[in-house]
């Protein structure tokens, strides 16, 4: 498999490029608008054809590159079925598989950070643990996505994390949409053991923890959310 993890410094966002073979079709997860030219150049250098660009949810801290990539490459744009974006080419349901030239991604509905967040599992989901899960903001490395805007809900987040993601095999690699300390990958077992937000007794304790964070709003939220509902088109003043 061809796998690349790209980083956008201003919003600490990770974008992922996957393809099963040289010269084949590629998929991009959580692209950032400012990185569009870099992504297109990388795709060309690797001899790939971009087939699908996916957002795990409507991001509030950066403008998505979905629309720009579609214009540049003719790719399909995709989000989960609960997204309110009016511009995506296709929507996927919980448990649905996206098949691309030898790669299969299984969608997992993981609301809580937002009410339309999905995670994407590539590879095995059985005891062999040979898989990677792209968690968006649902589960971060030693953290979890905030739940205080875009219809977020700490109880839904608890269910998504403990009853869905943490039930994946321990060896499953976790690739989040963000990390603010330069960490690039974790595993289900590591997060269960060492993530401080997961050391709670139950959903009520998790909700109290999340409701007490009192975080400032993302700096670009007023621009990013409206733009991302239009696949990255920023409204002109």
Strand order of the largest sheet: 1-2-3-4-5-6
CATH fold description: Metallo-beta-lactamase, Chain A
How far apart lie the N and C ends?
A: 44 Å
- Principal-axes shape call: globular
Rg computed from alpha carbons, rounded to a whole number of angstroms: 17 Å
Give the rounded overall mean pLDDT: 94
Q: With helices defined by DSSP (H or I, 4 residues minimum), what is the helix count? A: 6
The CATH first-level class comes to Alpha Beta
- Percent range of helical residues: 10-25%
The CATH superfamily label reads: Ribonuclease Z/Hydroxyacylglutathione hydrolase-like
Secondary-structure element series: EEEHEHEEEEEEEEHEEHHH
* The CATH architecture: 4-Layer Sandwich
Structural class: alpha/beta
Strand content range: 25-35%
Total strand count, please? Answer: 14
Task: Please describe what this structure looks like.
With 237 residues, the protein is α/β, with parallel strands linked by helices. It has a single domain, classed as 4-Layer Sandwich (Metallo-beta-lactamase, Chain A). 22% of the residues lie in helices and 28% in strands. The protein contains six helices and 14 strands. Strands 1-2-3-4-5-6 form a six-stranded mixed beta sheet. A six-stranded mixed beta sheet has the order 7-8-9-10-13-14. A hairpin with a 7-residue loop joins strand 9 (118-123) and strand 10 (131-136). The longest helix is centred in the first third of the chain and has 10 residues, at 36-45. The termini are far apart.
List strands and helices in order, with pairings.
Blueprint (H helix, E strand, L loop, with lengths): L1 E7 L4 E7 L5 E5 L6 H10 L3 E6 L11 H8 L2 E5 L9 E3 L4 E4 L2 E7 L8 E6 L7 E6 L2 E2 L2 E2 L9 H10 L9 E4 L9 E2 H7 L8 H9 L9 H8 L9
Parallel strand pairs: 3-4, 4-5, 5-6, 10-13
Antiparallel strand pairs: 1-2, 2-3, 7-8, 8-9, 9-10, 11-12, 13-14
């Amino acid at each position: 498999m061809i796998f690349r993890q790209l980083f956008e410094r201003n919003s600490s966002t990770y974008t992922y490029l996957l393809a099963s073979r040289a010269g084949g079709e590629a998929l991009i997860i959580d692209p950032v608008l400012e990185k569009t030219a870099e992504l297109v150049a990388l795709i060309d250098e690797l001899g790939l054809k971009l087939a699908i660009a996916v957002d795990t949810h409507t991001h509030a801290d950066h403008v998505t590159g979905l629309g720009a990539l579609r214009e540049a490459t003719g790719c399909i744009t995709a989000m989960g079925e609960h997204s309110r974006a009016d511009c995506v080419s296709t929507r996927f349901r919980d448990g649905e598989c996206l098949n691309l030239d030898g790669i299969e991604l299984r969608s997992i509905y993981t609301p809580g950070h937002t009410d339309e967040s999905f995670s994407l599992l590539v590879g095995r989901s059985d005891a062999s643990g040979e898989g990677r899960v792209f968690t968006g903001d649902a589960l971060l490395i030693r953290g979890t996505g905030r739940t205080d805007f875009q219809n977020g809900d700490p109880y839904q987040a608890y269910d998504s994390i403990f009853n869905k993601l943490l039930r994946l095999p321990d060896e499953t690699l976790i690739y989040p949409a963000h990390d603010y300390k330069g960490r690039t990958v974790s595993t289900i077992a590591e997060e269960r053991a060492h993530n401080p937000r997961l050391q709670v007794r139950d959903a009520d304790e998790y909700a109290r923890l999340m409701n007490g964070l009192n975080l400032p709003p993302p700096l670009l939220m007023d621009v990013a959310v409206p733009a991302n509902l239009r696949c990255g088109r920023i409204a002109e003043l």
